Amino acid sequence: MDISNIDQVEKATLSGQQELARLGAALFFLLLVFLYAVTNLGSLQGGGMLVAAAVIGGYMALNIGANDVANNVGPIVGAKAVTLTGALIIAAIFEASGALIAGGNVVSTIKKGIIDPAMVKDTAEFIWLMMAALLAGGIWLNLATAIGAPVSTTHSIVGGVLGAGIAAGGMSVANWGTMGKIAASWVISPALGGLLAMLFLFAIKRTVLFQPERVDAAKKWVPLWISLMIWAFTTYLTIKGLKHVYKMPFGEALGVGFVAAVIAFLVIRPMIARKAQGMDNDRESVSSLFTWPLIMAAAFLSFAHGANDVANAVGPLAAITDAVEHGVIAKKSPIPLWVMMVGAVGISIGLMLYGPRVIRTVGSEITELDKTRAFCISLAAAVTVILASQLGLPVSTTHIAVGAVFGVGFLREILKTSYASELHKIAEQHQGAEREKIEQFLKDFRAASVDEMKHKLDWAKTHKQEMPLSKAERKRLKRVYHEKLVTRSHLWKIAAAWVITVPATALIAAIAFFAIRGFMIP
Predict the structure, then answer these.
(1) Distances (CA, A) of 505 to 143, 165, 305
(2) pTM
(3) What is the phi/psi pair of residue 310, to 5°?
(4) 430 lies in a domain?
């Protein structure tokens, strides 16, 4: 057997072993949830259903960690601000902290009021409905993670509740006005996130990166940009991450954020000045000034996500627990500590085991990120949530973050295309004998990284006589260049996953509801 074939077999074997180890760890967590539920809850009337619901809730939590959390740390990994392992540790700690510290003591029984619980016949059907919704959400997130598509966990559980609700009570049970608003977020969220990320990146390029003396410009502007981030994230954390602990009015939250920003500016400005001393006057050196702010942003986003989105895992489980213990359907249900622990620990374990797949998609496969671009993505995510919450617009944090990634990629296309256009204008003045040279240039151009492309185009601009391009070659060059900046296949894959999330989870939940009901009714 060829040595290269042996190496391939060894790599495949190692990959298979790692996959089995991840699966074993996930199953062990679910086994612990099962044992706890059996020991402490199995003796209750309806305890068997509660044990099953606890395991399904743990499965949902694992999949939230595997898929949704990647949006918080993907950009910083892609920008190489921190290693993948470091990002996983940061996210796991702050996700669990957000869930346990600020996750709240009470959760809405029906997520976002998408169905009318009064239309559900009895407590038993309500329990089956919520179990089916949890299972559907978990299955859909599992499938999305397997193909590396970041999707909204909120939309997943919303679709699950909708589908199971319709199966239980018919079409009239659904609140279609609310569903219309949720559907609107498929467009609003990525559009807002992408637009703001583009604006922030363009502004940083104009104030710092496009300046001839980048280091001097960085001393002046980088403290201001970081202070803006502190303002946005303090406000974001106050109104979203800590809302279950203390509900602060928006004006007050904005004021607290402003005070934090002023203090940060006074502290950061001399630090940036010292760090910039002796720094090379290039983009990479200046971008490194955003490293620590990026790590802070990932921590803030993870904390806020844990405080808010843990409800997607524990909400239905808390509702089932309350229904089993009291025999009634309440609009709001208390969250027992064990339920919150299932959500918090499950999200962290799911992130550590399966998060890297979606992190790679968000951080490096959509478009090439550096620290400046990742900073703009994080800032856009926080500002978009703040604006949307005050305007009453339905948004998804997942869609915002991924939309911001695409936004910075498309801005790069717009800016970089200007270089290609210059090359095209020069090429139109030449033809004939030098065609062989330009073909070699195109071959090198296609093999170059995005940053190298810019240098090659600059070189072509200063060596006009050597660069004759035909019309067909110009179109080919433009197409190759654009594909380097934003991977179109990921754009369509992710967009398709977003659009079908609610209908797919609704269908899975309806099937699961009928299966559970058929199993429970003799």
Answers:
(1) 11, 12, 21
(2) 0.79
(3) -60, -25
(4) no
User: pLDDT tens-digit profile of 396-442?
Assistant: 788 888 889 888 888 877 776 554 544 444 444 445 556 567 656 76
Q: What tokens were used for 505?
A: 């989870």
Q: Are the beta carbons of 154 and 76 closer than 8 angstroms?
A: no
CB neighbourhood size of 247 (10 A): 10
Q: Are the C-beta atoms of 218 and 264 separated by less than 8 Å?
A: no
**Which element (helix H / strand E) includes 106?**
strand 106-108
Q: Which residues contact 437 (CB under 8 A, 6 or more apart)?
A: 466, 467
| Domain span including residue 352 | 3-187+303-371+394-413+486-520
Residue type, 315: G
In a domain, 322, yes or no: yes
Q: Which two tokens stand for residue 311?
A: 């409800």
The total number of structural domains in the chain stands at 1
Q: Residue 298: what pLDDT?
A: 87
Kindly state whether residue 446 falls inside one of the protein's structural domains.
no
Residue 458 lies in a domain: no
CB contact at 8 A, 188 and 400: no
For the record, the structure tokens of 64 come out as 């939230």
State which residues of the chain have pLDDT below 50.
1-4, 419, 421-430, 471, 483
- Looking at residue 427, what is its pLDDT? 47
If DSSP codes are grouped into helix, strand and coil, which group holds residue 462? helix
What are the structure tokens assigned to 370, written together?
């550096």
Transcribe 27-94 into DSSP letters.
HHHHHHHHHHHHHHHTTSTTHHHHHHHHHHHHHHHHHHHHHTTHHHHHHHHHTTSS-HHHHHHHHHHH
